[in-house]
Amino acid sequence: MCLYMICLYTVLTLHTVIYVNSTEYNEKRKTLSPYQCTSVRHLHDSRVDLNCSIPDNTQWNFTVVQSWAEKHMVKQMQVYIKCGINGTVILRQPVKARGLFALYINSCKIGNFYKYDLSSKLELVPFTLKTMEVIDSIHVITCRELDILYTNLSDKVNSKYPCYIPPSLERYVERNVSVLVIRVKCHTNKNVRIRHYENIPIWNYKHLTYYEKSCSTKNKFKFTSKFLQKGSFPSLRILNFSRLHLDRIPEKLVKGNYSKDFPDLRLVDLSHNSLSNIYFGSFHGTREHFSINMSHNQIRVINSTVLTTLKSMYPGVIMLYDNPFSCRCDQYHFLQFLKYSSDPVVTQYHSLKTESCRTPLKYKGRLLGDIPLDRKCHPSDSYGNTNAVIIIPVASVICCISAIFICLFYRRWIVSFRYKRLQQKQKKSKSIRCDKIKYDAFISYSCKDESLVKIMCGRLEGPPYLLSLCLHNRHFEPGVPITDNIFEAVKTSRRTVVVLSEHFLASQWCLMEFRAANCKGLVDNKRHLVVILLDDLNKCLTPLPPDIELFLQTHTYLRATEYMFWEKLVSFLRNDVSNKDMGHSYNNSPEI
């Protein structure tokens, strides 16, 4: 009996100790997160995710994270910072914190970025940051901050931290980021500023594989030129300078030797700029999958010099679609090259035959491949008709004035008429769409990934999303050819979601589903297809089919484990956005 009582007492004591320790542990976990942040610990790999939400009109200092990481001896940490209206993050260079390997900043004002922290304490912290993304944000800089940098701190900064970005970075994204300079008490003259930039040494960004600076409201030619000039990029694979209002190509891309300056480069994105010429450096030794995207620019003529550039770049390619091509006589050599050349280079540019001419007027709207080459060239073909140059603007002005008077006189009748017509069109287009579209999305996946897909579909089809999904195991009709089922599923679905994995790449039917969906997006000029990358797929080790690799390089994709995955996926499935309205996102980032 005594032995039984002793055992019972021991068990109760241990249970109490365990309960107390568990309570203490939970209390400690509540105090783990820094101010304005919540933390998620991944026990299997000792990783910490910090999600920091900065309220409206609030200023928050990144030193909170630095101190917290040092106090808790964090080994691996990624930080997500999202700001409300007028939320400000004080982030001083160098961007460091113990164990910090990823930093994402969204919709914030960033202050004191050029007010360097040169303390010996921070200097002892090593650079560990691998990924940094700043999106839809504003750098707020004061003249006082720049004065101190260019005068008192110039030598120290250039010797300790010469990099524009942390030297450990592998991926850097700066999208739709502007600069607001508060010009109060500015004293530094231009020569001091120039001397500071000249003293910056050339830095080897040996880890950087992806660099993006895109979507600016101002011309960023000076910045892009200086960044490339002051850097060495042995590992860079993708360089994205899209939507920067560039009217010239940065000098290092024009005069540089690509095999020497950018030995591992695969894609240069210069799309959606104002470039009118194609001038590049030496392309000798370029790789098969190397490409330069110059679509949506102002390129009108591809002369014999540019043709030589295109040929020297082979087997690489310059993408030139959606440019305002001229079909005058100075385009003769390129049109002849497209039609009759037997050079293997021409296979890279067959799609340009379907591009439309913008000038001269008599060929406007005709396809490049349909322009006759046996015509005689007249001065008017190359330089335009002088009378037309005078008459057309005058006639346009007269027509505009007349139209204004007519609109003012008949404005009520016109508004009423257009409103009724618009209502009729909307009803008609809605009925047509509803007849064709049965599902919100067609899910394309390998049967070997079915367990993961079931979880995903269960969440999308359940509340609160309640989406209608098409799956091959539920909706493919028996007895019908597989190809017909595939095309019908893609045709009757508003979107197609590809779950990309090793198993997917091994299936020919899965690849056919990808190609059918990709083709539909191109034909309809809609953002129809999105790719979800599973963690078991290593893009560096797994050889991808050329069309899938090109799609991943030039389109946004999602990772199943990334931050706000469900919100991004559902937003994509519900929104109806055309390709023309879609920003070019290299996601190869978290980005839909």
From TrEMBL:
It comes from Mizuhopecten yessoensis. It holds the Pfam family TIR_2. One of its GO terms (molecular function) is signaling receptor activity. The keyword Transmembrane applies. The chain crosses the membrane at residues 388-410. One of its GO terms (cellular component) is plasma membrane. Keywords: Membrane, Receptor, Signal, Transmembrane, Transmembrane helix. One of its GO terms (biological process) is signal transduction. It is a single-pass membrane protein. InterPro entries: LRR_dom_sf, TIR_dom, Toll_tir_struct_dom_sf. Residues 1-22 form the signal peptide. It is found in: Membrane. Residues 437-573 form the TIR domain. This is Toll-like receptor 2 type-1.
